[in-house]
Write a structure and sequence with these properties.
189 residues; mainly beta; seven-stranded antiparallel β-sheet; globular
């Protein structure tokens, strides 16, 4: 038996999102309409999902800190980009692009199911080194997370799971903002 070989868009965000600022604890940043419920038993070993996100990020000048994106399955962080350094130039809602690939490597109940995830983030406001400004880098492409590849936190694939997309800043400021313009969850096989 083989897996189907065509991609299927499971959900897209149908309208521009809200601009969120002045927070540190990660929270949902997609529109409620873009939440998707994976049915119980939907995942199999080797099942691949892709999340593409485009939006805008605003940053505090000089010491903006970091932003972290998370793919949530219910209350479980199934994937995290890890902390991504923001550069020291002030920005207001300038574009970023994030691609995340998730491959199901284990299924089961409790905390048995796990994704292997890796991503790529692009944006003028991103940098590999704290304190850099726009003059030091331009539209940086960063691999996420910036660690050895590892499976995410385990979850229960035998029950329905809501797929959500979170972000959090390391520094709370009205200047540190994130707004999702486009979001897509795709099943690749």
């Amino acid at each position: 038996m083989s897996l189907q070989t065509w991609g299927e868009t499971l959900v897209t965000q149908q309208a521009a999102g809200t601009s969120f600022g002045t927070f540190t604890t990660a929270k949902t940043i997609i529109n409620p309409q873009a939440l998707y419920t994976l049915p119980a038993g939907y995942l199999s070993i080797g099942k691949k999902l892709r999340i593409q996100v485009q939006g805008g990020i605003g940053t505090l000048v000089t010491t903006p800190g970091t932003i972290t994106f998370q793919v949530m399955l219910g209350s479980v962080i199934a994937f995290t980009t890890g902390a991504i350094q923001l550069n020291a130039t002030a920005h207001t809602n300038i574009p970023f692009w994030l691609d995340i690939s998730l491959t199901c490597q284990a299924i089961g109940n409790g905390t048995t199911a796990k994704f292997m995830g890796q991503g790529q983030a692009t944006g003028q406001m991103l940098t590999a080194t704290a304190g850099q400004t726009d003059g030091a880098n331009s539209h940086t492409v960063l691999m996420t997370p910036n660690t050895a590849a590892a499976q995410g936190t385990g979850f229960d694939s035998t029950t329905a799971q809501i797929v959500d997309f979170f972000a959090g800043f390391s520094i709370s400021s009205a200047s540190n903002t994130v707004k999702i313009e486009q979001y897509e969850l795709t099943s690749l096989n």
